[in-house]
Amino acid sequence: MKFLNLFVNFAIAMVWFINGFFCKVLNLAPRHQAIVGKALSQEYAVLLTKTIGILEVLLAIWILTRLQPKLTTLFQLMLIASMNIIEFFLAPELLLFGKLNIIFAIIFMGIIYANQCYHQKELQSISQVPNN
Questions:
Q1: Could you point out which of 51, 90, 102, 131 has its C-alpha 20 to 30 Å from the C-alpha of 45?
Q2: How many angstroms separate the CA atoms of 21 and 75, rounded?
Q3: What pTM, to 2 d.p., does this model score?
Q4: What are the structural domain ranges in the chain?
Q5: What is the full DSSP assignment across 59-74?
Q6: By the 8 A CB rule, do 52 and 20 touch?
Q7: How far apart are CA 62 and CA 106, in angstroms?
Q8: Rounded to an integer, what distance in angstroms lies between the CA atom of residue 98 and that of residue 131?
């Protein structure tokens, strides 16, 4: 089961990396820039999108380090919820699945939360092993 936890952790990090680097920094999915332009500022959409992309890449690295996993999980959940609520109301026509995107966001949040719960359970079971 530990392998599954590590795999899911890696997969979560890759979602952030791919969306940040390929979709935003390299602009391989121009709709991301269009969403940022509509939600935040059309004038600064390019700069803001690339900045968000770089921050998402840094978040992927943070996830892979497994430093402060509770804080990382909380940060991701708040980020996903806020981004998707803003997009739901301000730019639903630009989303891959329209307003249904919120469903995929909730599923992704559930995976992140469940992965953290499993990781925490593993840490607790390791700390309870008696030293001989």
A1: 102
A2: 19
A3: 0.90
A4: 2-127
A5: HHHHHHHTSSHHHHHH
A6: yes
A7: 21
A8: 54
